[in-house]
Amino acid sequence: MKNYYYHLPIYKEMYGLLLDIFRRVEKLDRSHKYTIGERLKNECLDILKNIYQASRARDDMTKKIYLNEILDSIIHIKVLLRILKDLGAMSTKNYASFQEKIESVSKQATGWSNAGVS
Q1: Cα 14 to chain center, whole Å?
Q2: Which residue in 2, 86, 89, 103 is deepest, having the highest Cβ count within 10 Å?
Q3: How far is 102 from 84, CA to CA, in rounded Å?
């Protein structure tokens, strides 16, 4: 069975956000790069993994578990981004851009979860 998870809009949006996060983390001070930056990257990678797992889930209950994990990771990302902004490690403009992108992923995950559609 072929999986085309990488064609899902949520996957594409999250993958783009992951690339942006990687680029932004490279510019952080060392003190933030290896703490908050690494956590941001790992949360994004976890979301991509869970999108894949949800797309492969054979039943709605399993799918909901992965989608809930995605939503939990989104909350973590929002908090980490806010910390970077409040520490002055990220501009308000960058923060707003990241928030817009993560909110798009959140809406798609919520819609997917509510629809129960693979």
Answers
A1: 5
A2: 89
A3: 15
